[in-house]
Structure formats: C-alpha cells, structure tokens
Design brief:
The complex is a heterodimer of chains A (86) and B (472). With 86 residues, chain A is an alpha+beta fold. Chain A contains three helices and four strands. The chains are: A alpha+beta (86), B alpha/beta (472). The interface between A and B is medium-sized, with 22 and 30 residues.
Chain lengths: 86, 472
C-alpha cells in the first residue's frame, strides 16, 4: 500500500466538535508519513447521529470510520495500515 | 485559538446538551442529569482530576455559567441546576458580567509564581528569606520553601539567589492578560477586575484548566426561538468562514433555526468602511498624523485604559455592529436583535445597548447541532441585508485596512494579537513615530476569525476568507 485515503467530515457537528483543524492533517503528520496520505474533505458523513455528537469529529481512514478523531489517532491508524500493507 | 481540545470538546458537548434540553422545553427537568450523562460511572473521559465526583461538580459549575450565572454568587451548594434553569427562563435582564472563575478547576493551578528548585543549597546567607517582604520563605531540611499563601509574587527572592535556584512559574491567565486585569485577590482566589478587563478573552483561552467560563445568554435566545417568537440574527463576518458551505447556506441554516430575518454585519462593515475612509481623509487634511481603527472593542478598550496618547487617534466612526444594528432596527422595527459574535469584547459592546442579545459562534454551533441542522444541507438564499466582499473581509486581519485605505491610497498597517510585539508597535505609534496613516488593530491574532468564541481553526477559516476577496 502506497497511500492511505483520509476523509475528513466537514459536517456541522464535526466542525462544532473542533474537527476543522483536521483539515490541516497534512502539515501535522510526522515526516515519514508525509506524501503517503491522500486527504479529502467531505460533506456530512452522517456518523454523528449517535450519542448526540459527543463522538464527533469523525473521519474515514481508508474507508473505516473513526470517532473522536485527532491528529495522533489518525496518524497511528495510518501507520498501522501502512505497516500491515507493506 | 491554542486551546486544549479536550476542554473545548467538553464545553461544546455541554452547550449541545443544554441547547437540546432548551429546544425540547425540558431544561429544568434535564439540567441536573447532564453532568452525570456526560461522565457516566463506567464511561471513559474522566480521571483528569481527582475523581469523577469532582469532574461532575466542575461540569455543574460550567453549566451554571452557561445558564448565565456567576459561580462566585453560589450561596447554596445544594441548589440544583433545575432551579437555576427556571430562574434563567424567567429572567428579564442578563447579568452584565462576562466571565466567571470556576474555583474548583482553578485551584489545581500554581499558587505562587515563584518556586524553589532542587538547586537550592540551603546556604548560610539566606538572602531569599531575609529579603522577602512578607516573610513567606522558611528553611525546611536545608532547603528554602515558599509559602504560597504569603507570597505576593514580587520576585525579590529570585534576584537574591546566588544559585539561580528560584524559578518563575508563569500563571497562564495572568501572563496572557494584556490589561493586568486578572490576579490573585486577598481571598487567595483568582479574580477578574471588571474595571480593568477589556474582554479580550485571552485569559479564557490561556487557562489550561478551562477554569474561566463565559456567562452566557443561551437560555434567553434559544427559548425564544423554540417558542416561535420573532428574532433577527445579525451575524459577524467571521461566521461565514467557520463552515465550508457557501454563506447563502449559512443564512438558510439561521432561518431554519428559527430566526425570522438574517442580517450580515458585513453590510454594516461596508457602511463603516465608507465612513471611516471619509473620516481618514478629513483628519489627514486637518493635519492629524494618522488614524487608528475603532471596530475591535478589546483594542479600543486597551487604548482607553493603557495607551492614552492613542486616544485622540481612534476613529469616531461607529463599528460595523452599530451600523448593522441600526439598519436592522429600521428594517425590522420592534424585533429583538441577536448578534452572533466571535468574541467576548463584542458581547460587551452589545451589552452597551446596541442589540438585545448575543450568541457566540460556539453557542450558535451547539444550537445547530442540537436541532440537527447541517449547514451544508440547508437551502441557499441571500440575507435580508446582504453585504459586499469587502465588508465580509473584515473577518480577517487586514480586511479593514484594505477597505478603508483602498480609495485614498494612504499607507496602512495592520496589527493583530495583543502580544508584546503589537504592544511595542503601538507604543511607537503613541510616540508619533509610526509609519502608516491608517492603523488597523485587532485584539486577536489573525483578526476576528481567531476570536475566543469561534469554532473553526483560524488557519482553516483564513483559507475560506481568501476565497471571498474575488467574489461579489
């Protein structure tokens, strides 16, 4: 696997739960992961209707949903996917 | 907006839950359950401080602030949130205070700005203890110890120590305040001096315990919307940069939330820019060396309090909000106006009487989530009072200078953030040595998009503003 696709939800609930910063993922990644991530912004992924948005912000990492997404958690998942795929 | 995301998330989740309860008409019934639901016994997310009970107690105080009360006013610890909720629903006027300190969260912070490290040799001279004006230092097992209850943070001990063993520990809220308005009162608690406070919100952003909370008027505004009472929304230009959806869909979202009319404060910014450009021309002709902007109330507050030499240079043109509020009043007479604000300073300006209510961006966002309104899914339409791209660009630093300076070609300068660099620059202007003829100053670094009550990361919001400048 060369690259991992990360889809950031740009829905209102995710923005309200501080998800907008995830759009800056590329500049926050550790050097060895730079260039190995394809970042996409997407309209509401409709993952927020559980627990009243408390689990937002949401992202998809290679199609797999992630709750309470943060730079650290996304980077860890990317790392694991790349390690498993290589 | 270098805020701890955890604190931000907790605050916003609380706002969402309280908003939902208001919209469902069950605020008094639900309020006391919210801290328990957010921190269930078997859940994750606690363990930050000593125990779940303390976390819940702090959440209860946060909820009190959202309901509009000052935590300092608490007289009965057993008074349930339900009772505060009923009082909030019945009150006619909001508390004029903006911020309240959550003592139970604040008490985890350092109590003294000076600390004796292990480098202390317990020397014979004991210059630290002998020169302490409050006798706050005693020797314990060959090591100097500062009593935080007595220490007044003067720093003389640090100057005396030959081993550089005494460290200055910054107290984040005090470091961040540009107006020296927050500090430890005689009671031993952090207090904000309302006479000095310029409502910039820096203390709130700086506190790593999120111990400084806003006293909100969420209840008044959302209860009125829920009851179908007419309210007109006036939204600050920076709001449109919070979401990726087009501005016209944001207008649609505000209508769906229940506002009967929507006004872009950027329309007021268009008028303010024209008036300010005329004023600048007149002032320069009359021999004034320069003029400085009047739209950021935290900046004008700082000038009034700390930079007297700049006072006569502040533009007399009303703010965009003042213009927009007057326009809304003539177009929709008698309809209460709700300003959607990126910051506390504008809340204070609004409390001065130019609009009836204020919601912050965070509170509006919580209300949208509570109502399950996704901006991106809302019908697009123009505001009742729309604006030009120039007015909308007041959202970011440089926008005012661009709009005011555009016609006359006067040299402009834009400063943002009230850190040491900006203050140095302002003193240069106060001394009459500034190079520009029009000086724009914003209290937040990057302008209103970086306000203390915004939702989006300022860098992401800045990119959005960048896409407007070419548009209509």
């Amino acid at each position: 696997m060369d690259t991992v696709t990360v889809t950031i939800c740009a829905g209102t609930a995710c923005v309200v739960m501080d998800g907008s910063r995830l759009m800056l993922l590329e500049e926050q990644l550790p050097p060895h992961l730079k260039g190995r991530v394809k970042l996409r912004g997407e309209r509401c992924l409709e993952l927020c209707h559980r627990q009243g948005a408390a689990l937002a912000p949401h992202v998809l990492v290679q199609g797999e949903p992630m709750d309470q997404a943060s730079f650290e958690r996304i980077a860890a998942r990317i790392e694991a996917l790349l390690a498993a795929g290589s | 907006m270098a805020r701890d995301t955890n604190a931000t998330r907790i605050r916003r989740e609380l706002l969402i839950r309280l908003s939902r309860a208001i919209f469902r008409g069950e605020l008094p019934e639900r309020a006391d359950r919210i801290p328990l639901e957010m921190l269930p016994r078997d859940g994750r997310g606690h363990g930050l401080r000593c125990c779940i009970h303390r976390e819940r107690a702090i959440l209860r105080y946060r909820a009190m602030a959202v309901l509009g009360f000052s935590v300092q006013d608490e007289r009965d610890e057993l008074k349930p949130l339900a009772e505060y909720a009923r009082e909030a629903l019945a009150r006619k006027r909001r508390d004029p205070r903006l911020l309240t300190v959550l003592e139970d969260a604040c008490s985890a912070c350092v109590r003294s700005a000076f600390f004796v490290s292990n480098a202390c040799r317990g020397c014979m001279a004991q210059g630290c203890a002998l020169n302490c004006p409050k006798q706050a230092i005693r020797m314990e097992q060959g090591h100097a110890v500062i009593d935080p209850e007595l220490c007044v943070n003067c720093g003389r001990c640090q100057d005396q120590c030959p081993f550089n063993a005494i460290l200055r520990v910054p107290i984040p809220c005090e470091e961040a305040c540009p107006a020296e308005a927050i500090g430890r009162a005689a009671s031993g608690k952090q207090e904000i001096d309302p006479a000095r406070c310029i409502a910039c919100g820096k203390c709130m952003q700086a506190c790593p315990f999120a111990a400084i909370a806003e006293q909100s008027e969420l209840v008044e505004v959302l209860a009125a919307l829920a009851a179908g009472q007419p309210r007109v929304a006036l939204f600050a230009p920076a709001l449109a940069a919070q979401f990726q959806a087009p501005l016209e869909q944001l207008v649609g979202a505000l209508r769906r939330l229940g506002f009967c009319a929507v006004v872009e404060v950027a329309a007021g910014a268009d008028r303010a820019a024209a008036a300010e450009a005329r004023e600048l021309e007149e002032r320069l002709e009359a021999g004034d060396p320069f003029m400085t902007s009047s739209c950021c109330p935290a900046y004008t507050g700082l000038v009034a309090a700390r930079l007297p030499a700049l006072r006569p240079r502040v533009s007399g043109t009303p703010t965009p909000l003042a213009y927009a509020a007057a326009m809304a009043a003539s177009q929709f007479p008698g309809v209460p106006r709700v300003f959607i604000s990126p910051c506390l300073a504008k809340r204070r300006e609004a409390l001065g009487g130019c609009v009836e209510h204020v919601l912050t961006f965070e509170e509006l966002g919580a209300a949208l989530v509570a109502r399950e309104i996704d901006v991106d899914a809302c019908a697009a339409g123009p505001a009742d009072l729309p604006a030009s791209a120039a007015g909308r660009c007041f959202a970011a630093a440089g926008g005012v200078a661009a709009a005011v300076g555009a016609g006359g070609g006067a040299a402009t300068e834009s400063l943002s953030g009230l850190g040491p660099e900006t203050l140095r620059r302002l003193r240069l202007y106060a001394a009459g040595k500034g190079p520009a003829r029009f000086l724009e100053v914003m209290a937040c670094e990057g302008g209103c998009i970086a306000g203390p009550c915004t939702l989006a990361d300022p860098r992401v919001a800045r990119r959005r503003v960048g896409t407007w400048s070419g548009g209509g």
